Amino acid sequence: MNHWSAPKRPAEYAEKSLVTAILNRDYPPGSSLPAERELAALLGVTRPTLRETLKKLERDGWLTIQQGKSTRVNDFWKEGGLNVLNALVEHSEILSPSFVPNLLYVRLVLAPAYTRLAVENSPGQVQDFLEGAHSLGDTPEEYSAYDWQLHHMLTTVSGNPIFTLILNGFAGLYKQMATRYFQQANARKASHEFYQLLNEATKANDALKAESITRDVMSESIRLWEAQPGGAA
Asked: For residues 213 and 187, what is the distance between their CA atoms, to the nearest angstrom?
């Protein structure tokens, strides 16, 4: 019986190794990577595989490949793309305490807009989903899963796929964060009331009311998060 998991593709392994080295500041922003031959040997991959990896990391904003010069490590906070969020989620130990509140403030800006558009574009679909809140079990896990699915659904029916791409960019951290957030009984209560109010606004086809309700609860979620031990920046 084989208990071993399938090995990663060489390019995937090289990418993960380089991202980890950048996040661990083995190669800090502004520094240069070793020469191609040396770096390929360090990673144990072929030079064509390394070139493939470096091009992908450049597209994501981690690196700048300079013809005839060493590859430069970017400041990923300033030059990184959405894919950087996925990597940061996998290395949550290096994140500052302000990272989650910053994400919540981004959600405060985005969620009211995509909720309004969703109610304008597809009130029936939004209402059908919100009816499911009545059967939610009072556990952090159920609330976490439902809340993620709700926001994902709202972005997909908003008519603007960029909202969904942004949300998907921090899916792993969102779910992890939500489970911790919903450990609080008052957080579950606040969200349950939000689902009810949003449902009522949707039934009334009042997209502006839905937008206002969402903005209020997003602001409250920041307050509740920062009130937790270790939640404030």
From this structure: 16
